[in-house]
Amino acid sequence: MNGRIATLMVHTSPLDQPGIGDAGGMNIYVLESAQRMAAMGVEVDIFTRRTENKSPDIIEISKGVRVRYFECGHGNLTKEQLPVHIVGLSKEFMRIIKDENYDAIHSHYWISGKVAMPVAAQLGIPLVHTMHTMARVKNLNLAEGETPEPMIRVQGETQVAAAAQALIANTDAEAASLVSLYDACPDTVHVVNPGVDLYTFTPGFGRKAAREHIGTPSDRFVVTFVGRIQPHKGPEVLIRAAAELVKHSPHMRPKLIVNIIGGASGANTEEVERLKELATWLGIDDVVHFAPPVPRADLVHWYRAADLVAVPSYSESFGLVALEAQACGTPVIATAVGGLRTAVADGISGVLVDGHDPKAWSSVIARLLQEPQRRVLLSMGAIEHASHFGWDATARETLDIYDEVITQNNATAKIAGQ
């Protein structure tokens, strides 16, 4: 198709560094798919709220892709403060796009969906929505001590699911959750797997070269976590698993490095310090190394340098970290939840673990570290598995959905005008 799409992601900019604040896989998803769609002839404007006064109104990312900032009107608000400003955000979004002739609006995350709903209705153009994460799913899988998602989010997601002409789910499991937990019409739910940049995330020159690049000894066992530092992502599970491992296999202690790469998430700015204190209390602060989020070009080296990448999330709509690591040839240990069941081929590209018991995680990690031949086989399987998930396919399938809803919308408008 040829046309113009208004993509809306209110609570975080596609240009924000993943792994800090509210930026994560969704930021990568939106930017990567937009660039691939633009290469196929579709113009994509990504609308997000301005958080810095110095930001220009429009930034051209590449040919056919622009980031457009609009005012929230209340300064630099946190994600948690945004819901009460949805009406104002909708009015501002409407003011900007009402005369611009977009063919469809694609909103990402529930707040954006709520902002987009009245605008799409007033302009008579179709609304496509991607949830990315869902409150009801998260609340069924909370980490210990984690605060449940508020009812205003549950209600908002339910309203968006009913209003959208198309809902894009990352996996079959997410599609099933939309239907069973939100009463979404099955005919409006489509499954489009996210992708991985197969040109950037590659095995490269191997583990030894990667370790030289980041300054890690070549004779160590390295297990790495990448992501926002929040309870729901499960970094504490990996830290406690490491403590169990060195307790039962003390000879592994001088050989083991556990990397925790990421920044504080949202309003929870103290989580990194809490985990550092936990590592000290468990007596493994010599084993666990914390690092801030790194640019994606450098992240490749951290993936390649690891023997294993751990994704111990409590729920995950897909799990781009798992896919990126596998594309680099690194096997993944992940929780057997949500989209991770699709992102990781259990026993082929990595291992899925039921639950979050540190002892169980310790057992799986120890066994894999002590079986180098199996890790080689998993590495080969990881590269092959990841090769099936490219952003070009994500973009093509998304464009097919745009085509479908635009055609339906035009037919409905024609009938109404008769």
UniProtKB/TrEMBL annotation:
GO molecular function, one term: D-inositol-3-phosphate glycosyltransferase activity
Every Glycosyl transferase family domain range: 208-376
UniProt keyword annotations, A-Z: Magnesium, Metal-binding
Alphabetical GO biological process terms: mycothiol biosynthetic process
Root EC class: transferase
One Pfam family cited in the UniProt record for this chain: Glyco_transf_4
Cross-referenced InterPro entries: Glyco_trans_1, Glyco_trans_4-like_N, Glycosyltransferase_grp1, Mycothiol_biosynthesis_MshA
SUPFAM superfamilies in alphabetical order: UDP-Glycosyltransferase/glycogen phosphorylase
EC number(s) per entry: 2.4.1.250
Protein name per the record: D-inositol-3-phosphate glycosyltransferase
